[in-house]
């Protein structure tokens, strides 16, 4: 059995970066009192919502209100300390400081042994799958679980990788036929790695939207029908519903995990979950949602009030999809 953690946006730049460096915080400070929980997982998978570099210039070719960059000298050890084994890079902030910072991000993750997908030196590399071998920490005799990841984003087309230029794996998901054709090619490449588990990670849709668009629902269900085992969605900054389609959990949006963003008092973008997937004999046996809360530029276990709010909201959002949860202490567990 393996326990895998999925999170939404991990943004380590701006005030998070400043707090870490100027206050000389330990690298684990961004994970707060969740550090041990994260380290107990067999692997942690995140959307990295910033570049990792001290170089580059702010993107000015098109209007960008925010630019996120973290010093890799602390940020990479922080990812490693939490047990991050893979990062999605297909998002709307990876080129905030241009191609130089993007390439630095690739190099620093590669040097740390953290797999990544969704960006690269050119379009072919950006669309390439990543693979992670996960062993069961409690059973040294267990066969490693091979997980393949494909990543794409429908955000910021100007960041798209070209035939000969670096960037992200951009897909216009509103052009459903073309998007499916491209994704089918990406899935075929991933299947050639002979994975036990196939994950599609999508940075899709606008900010602060609490329900997935109809074409995202169709795309998520299509991915499940094409044999994807987990659909890992993010981008909205608030968590959205969980749907189970043909046995595949579709996490439409995992919300924010750690950042420095202003908090909307209604949508509560500071509250979300650590999504834990238990895999046994190559099959998903449990989905568990651990309530989280952002405070002082770090993520931590949600307060009782915040956890209750998040559980109630997740149940409301997911009911439309026929998804039901049991309560286990402060946590939610997907009903069989």
Automatic annotation (TrEMBL):
InterPro entries assigned: Capsule_synth_CapA, CW_Biosynth-Accessory, Metallo-depent_PP-like
Domain Capsule synthesis protein CapA: 3-261
Gene3D superfamilies in UniProt: 3.60.21.10
Span of the signal peptide: none
PANTHER family: POLYGLUTAMINE SYNTHESIS ACCESSORY PROTEIN RV0574C-RELATED
The family this protein is said to belong to: Belongs to the CapA family.
Protein name: CapA family protein
């Amino acid at each position: 059995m393996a326990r895998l953690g999925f999170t939404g946006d991990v943004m380590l730049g701006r005030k998070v970066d400043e707090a870490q460096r100027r206050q000389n915080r330990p690298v684990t400070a961004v994970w707060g009192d969740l550090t041990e929980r994260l380290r107990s997982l067999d692997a942690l998978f995140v959307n990295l919502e910033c570049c990792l570099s001290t170089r580059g210039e702010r993107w000015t070719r098109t209007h960008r209100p925010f630019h996120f960059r973290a010093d890799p000298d602390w940020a990479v050890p922080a990812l490693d300390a939490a047990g991050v084994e893979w990062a999605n890079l297909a998002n709307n902030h990876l080129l905030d400081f241009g191609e130089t910072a993007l390439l630095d991000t690739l190099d620093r993750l590669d040097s740390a042994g953290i797999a990544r997908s969704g960006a690269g030196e050119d379009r072919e590399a950006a669309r390439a799958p990543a693979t992670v071998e996960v062993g069961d920490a409690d059973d040294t005799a267990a066969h490693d679980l091979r997980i393949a990841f494909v990543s794409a984003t429908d955000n910021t087309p100007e960041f798209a990788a070209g035939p000969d230029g670096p960037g992200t794996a951009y897909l216009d998901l509103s052009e459903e036929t073309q998007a499916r054709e491209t994704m089918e090619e990406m899935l075929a490449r991933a299947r050639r790695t002979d994975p036990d588990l196939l994950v599609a990670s999508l940075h899709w849709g606008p900010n602060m939207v609490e329900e997935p668009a109809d074409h995202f629902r169709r795309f998520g269900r299509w991915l499940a029908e094409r044999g994807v085992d987990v659909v890992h969605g993010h981008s909205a900054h608030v968590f959205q519903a969980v749907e189970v389609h043909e046995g595949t959990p579709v996490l439409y949006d995992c919300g924010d995990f750690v950042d420095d963003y202003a908090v909307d008092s209604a949508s509560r973008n500071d509250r979300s979950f650590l999504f834990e997937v238990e895999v046994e004999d190559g099959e998903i046996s449990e989905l568990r949602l651990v309530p989280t809360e952002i405070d002082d530029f770090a993520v931590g276990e949600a307060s009782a009030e915040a956890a209750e709010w998040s559980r109630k909201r997740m149940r409301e959002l997911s009911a439309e999809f026929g998804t039901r949860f049991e309560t286990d202490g402060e946590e939610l567990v997907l009903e069989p």
